[in-house]
Amino acid sequence: YPYVTGTSVVGVKYKDGILMASDMGASYGSTLRYKSVERMKPIGKHSLLGASGEISDFQEILRYLDELILYDNMWDDGNSLGPKEVHSYLTRVMYNRRNKFNPLWNSLVLGGVKNGKKYLGTVSMIGVHFEDNHVATGFGNHLARPILREEWREDLSYEDGVKLLEKCMRVLLYRDRSAVNKIQIAKITEEGVSISKPYSLRTFWEFNAFRNPTVGAEGSW
């Protein structure tokens, strides 16, 4: 069973590549214990991985991927694994562990760009996987995806993509008890991966529902 877990990761395609966002919180059970945990990592030359769920299992997956990339580099044939291949590998790993009744307790987002082609996919702890123009894990599946369906477009600029991800992360901060107001946004293009330094979102807590959450709830349990 998971012990230390991270919450949502949100990823979108934009005009030049892939953008991904996550906060830096990690909960020990229901206690928000750690607030500086990075949950997005570059994989090889062309891919970027984000993870929800058990942090130690994410570290184990990163070890698997380090071995995979090292083995690929040792061929020294001028080719390198792209995001589609890495995503396929992860689906096999997650499904294999699920079949052993010892799953890796993670939901993963894998994005990348190779030869001008953008790729964005997700895989769950039991191996369920798909690719799309925007994906999310955890609470993001319920709270961020409706926003993305409404506002995402194919010609999204970098600036607009960042604003859209910040909007999703702000909604998750308001509604997800495991989220913290310390986020990172990562970008991957043909040039490579860049992950922003952690920063805080501007928030507003004076909504009536926040100030007095029990109004209208008298008599309920």
TrEMBL record:
Single biological process term from Gene Ontology: proteolysis involved in protein catabolic process
Subcellular location: Nucleus
Entry's Gene Ontology cellular component terms: nucleus; proteasome core complex
Record InterPro entries: Ntn_hydrolases_N, Proteasome_alpha, Proteasome_beta4, Proteasome_bsu_CS, Proteasome_sua/b, Proteasome_suB-type
CDD domains recorded: proteasome_beta_type_4
Entry keyword set: Cytoplasm, Nucleus, Proteasome
PROSITE patterns attached to this UniProt entry: PROTEASOME_BETA_1 (PS00854), PROTEASOME_BETA_2 (PS51476)
The UniProt record lists the keyword Transit peptide: no
PANTHER family, sorted: PROTEASOME SUBUNIT ALPHA/BETA
Protein name: Proteasome, subunit alpha/beta
